[in-house]
């Protein structure tokens, strides 16, 4: 049985797993789980991932959730090039340091900005108080500043001269608020130079293909049916407002 990856490219961690598998020529069946249609709550998907999130992986009888765990599994199983998850313990520690930090920093703040700027007003019809928006933008800005000053410093990539899982996880998260129309790179030359290197290392075609959905999100929401999200409105507002 081929390796199965359960993905929706609207999701940042799903994109990182998708890019990682593609760039390493790992063969897989793309199992689309449409989050906005609530497919993650279906009975069948509950058997794949009881946490009801994407991404998830099935390799024969073995099921795995969590993007970072999935990419580490794939890197070991398929012996991907060392730079992705270096065996040198200090380089690996740099990658781990970023991966450990980002959940409650770039991921949390970038996701919040995406929902506050785009999904909550346009799909749920809810007005976002100005102070909430300002606080979310400030938090995101603080995280981007730390990526530049602490994680990148003067290095081309987070762990040194080559791209690693840390850069991949970072870029997919930063692209989420970009998808809501936020100007991120233009005012940050260091981050912008790094983004260009990451895109070149991934390959512009694969990078753009993986981000096509999120970069057309502003256009898509115009024709999307907001009623599919209504049942989740209390949960969404609790999470982001
Ligand atoms: N820590 C998890 C996060 C997974 C996650 O939160 N996925 C979101 C999309 S970005 C999801 O599936 N949400 C569906 C829901 O909460 O209903 C990972 O890295 O895989």
From TrEMBL:
GO BP annotation list: glutathione metabolic process
Major localisation: cytoplasm
Keyword Translocase belongs to the record: no
Subunit-structure text: Homodimer.
Family per record: Belongs to the GST superfamily. Theta family.
A family per Pfam: GST_N
Gene Ontology MF term list: glutathione transferase activity
Keyword Cytoplasm: yes
Residue intervals of the GST C-terminal domain: 88-224
Entry protein name: glutathione transferase
InterPro entries attached to this UniProt entry: Glutathione-S-Trfase_C-like, Glutathione-S-Trfase_C_sf, Glutathione_S-Trfase, Glutathione_S-Trfase_N, GST_C, GST_C_Theta, GST_N_Theta, GST_Theta
GO CC terms in record: cytoplasm
PANTHER family: GLUTATHIONE S-TRANSFERASE THETA-1, PTHR43917
Localisation per UniProt entry: Cytoplasm
Origin superkingdom: Eukaryota
Known EC number: 2.5.1.18
Organism of origin: Alosa alosa
Enzyme class: transferase
Keywords linked to the UniProt accession: Cytoplasm, Transferase
Catalytic activities: RX + glutathione = an S-substituted glutathione + a halide anion + H(+)
Domain GST N-terminal span(s) in chain numbering: 1-82
Record-linked Gene3D superfamilies: 1.20.1050.10, Glutaredoxin
């Amino acid at each position: 049985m081929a390796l199965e990856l359960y993905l929706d490219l609207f999701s940042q961690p799903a994109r990182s797993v998708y890019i990682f598998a593609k760039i390493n020529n790992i063969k897989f069946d793309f199992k689309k789980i449409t989050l906005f249609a609530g497919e993650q709550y279906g009975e069948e998907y509950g058997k794949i991932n009881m946490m009801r999130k994407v991404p998830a992986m099935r390799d024969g009888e073995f099921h795995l959730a969590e993007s970072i765990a999935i990419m580490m599994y794939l890197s070991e199983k398929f012996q991907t090039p060392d730079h992705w998850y270096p065996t040198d313990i200090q380089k690996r520690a740099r990658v781990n340091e970023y991966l450990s930090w980002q959940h409650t920093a770039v991921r949390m703040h970038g996701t919040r900005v995406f929902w506050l700027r785009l999904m909550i007003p346009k799909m749920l019809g809810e007005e976002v108080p100005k102070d909430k928006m300002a606080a979310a933008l400030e938090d995101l800005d603080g995280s981007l500043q730390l990526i530049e000053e602490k994680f990148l410093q003067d290095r081309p990539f987070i762990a040194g001269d080559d791209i690693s899982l840390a850069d991949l996880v970072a870029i997919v998260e930063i692209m989420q608020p970009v998808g809501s129309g936020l100007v991120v790179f233009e005012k940050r030359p260091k981050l912008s130079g790094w983004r260009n290197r990451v895109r070149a290392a991934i390959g512009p075609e694969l990078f753009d293909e993986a981000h096509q959905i999120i970069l057309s999100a502003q256009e898509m929401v115009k024709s999307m049916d907001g009623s599919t999200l209504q049942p989740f409105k209390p949960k969404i507002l609790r999470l982001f407002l």
